[in-house]
Design brief:
The chain has 314 residues and is α+β, with helices and mostly antiparallel strands. The chain is built from seven helices and five strands; from the N terminus they run αααββαβααββα.
């Protein structure tokens, strides 16, 4: 009986252990399933978060790329405009960062290039104009030299010389006075006005250097004398104005006429226009010297021809 009871108790214990084992396995299976569900849910959440972050990164990259590429494209377009010579083109970038600063520097550079281009264009125009003037001067010198050398009658030569000096140098009038062998004072032998002015040619008038300081200075120094409007106004001796200039004269140039280091006479050029419009520039003075040197040679030839003619007639 006791053994039967022990067997019954043992069987009950075994049955209880089996039930506990089944309960444990069921709970373990449920826990494993919950863990798998949690891991799967975390995985899906991770994938969703990664996709969202990836989309954000893609959108940010696109916006960032556009914010860089668009200004850079504008700068590249601006360089192409400058290459084509459109110096007024400016790049407009309003990003508030380094790219806007770069655009401002680009515009400053374009402004300086535009200014330099304008200066170069004006310089080229001035050089071209000066070159054309030099070519015209050379043609005038050649023509004048040919004409003067072909004229052997002194009075005709001086009249031609006065006209050529007036027209070539674009002054209002010209007077030429020569020094006679019998009289050391210059005598006006030719005069020419380019337009009608209130003046007297003064042909045959004797210029007395002691009373005409500017004439005396040119004869003594062998240098040209330039008289500005202020010099003419401040002239104390009005005899000089009445003898060699006119009341309308705004400026004048007195040039000694020399041959082989010897004074042969004096050339007086007058201008009634204001200095700012027609100044006696260094180029005009240089051209005047060249023309006068050619004329001095022609005058010497004409005098030699006259002497030979007188000798022949004698």
């Amino acid at each position: 009986l006791l053994m039967k009871k022990f067997d019954a108790i043992g069987n009950a214990i075994i049955s209880l252990l089996d039930e506990l084992h089944l309960i444990y396995e069921a709970k373990l299976t449920k826990a494993s399933k919950d863990a798998n569900d949690a891991r799967l849910k975390a995985f899906y959440h991770l994938i969703g978060s990664g996709a969202f972050i990836g989309i954000l990164i893609l959108i940010f990259s696109i916006r960032f790329t556009q914010s860089i590429i668009k200004p850079i494209g504008a700068l590249a377009k601006g360089t192409r405009f400058l290459e084509s010579g459109e110096w007024g083109h400016r790049v407009k970038i309003k990003t508030g960062d380094e790219l806007e600063m770069l655009a401002n520097r680009f515009n400053q550079m374009a402004e300086k290039l535009s200014l330099q281009h304008s200066l170069l264009e004006r310089e080229v125009e001035n050089r071209t104009y000066q070159l054309s003037e030099r070519v015209e001067d050379l043609a005038t010198l050649l023509k004048t030299s040919t004409e003067l050398s072909s004229e052997l009658e002194l009075d005709q030569l001086l009249s031609m010389m006065a006209e050529r000096l007036t027209s070539t140098l674009k002054v209002t009038y010209c007077r030429i006075a020569l020094i006679d062998e019998d009289n050391p004072d210059p005598i006006i032998r030719a005069a020419y006005p380019i337009r009608m002015i209130n003046w007297e040619q003064g042909i045959g008038r004797v210029l007395q250097p002691y009373a005409l300081p500017d004439i005396r200075h040119a004869l003594e120094t062998f240098q040209c004398v330039i008289l500005s409007h202020q010099d003419i106004i401040n002239a104390k001796d009005t005899l000089e104005i009445s003898q060699i200039l006119t009341p309308e004269t705004e400026s004048a140039l007195i040039m000694p006429l020399m041959l082989k280091g010897k004074i042969e006479g004096i050339v007086i050029l007058g201008e009634v226009r204001v200095w700012e419009r027609e100044p006696f520039s260094s180029e005009k003075i240089s051209l005047c010297k060249t023309l006068i040197n050619q004329a001095a040679t022609a005058i010497a030839n004409a005098k030699s021809h006259a002497n030979l003619q007188d000798m022949f007639m004698s």
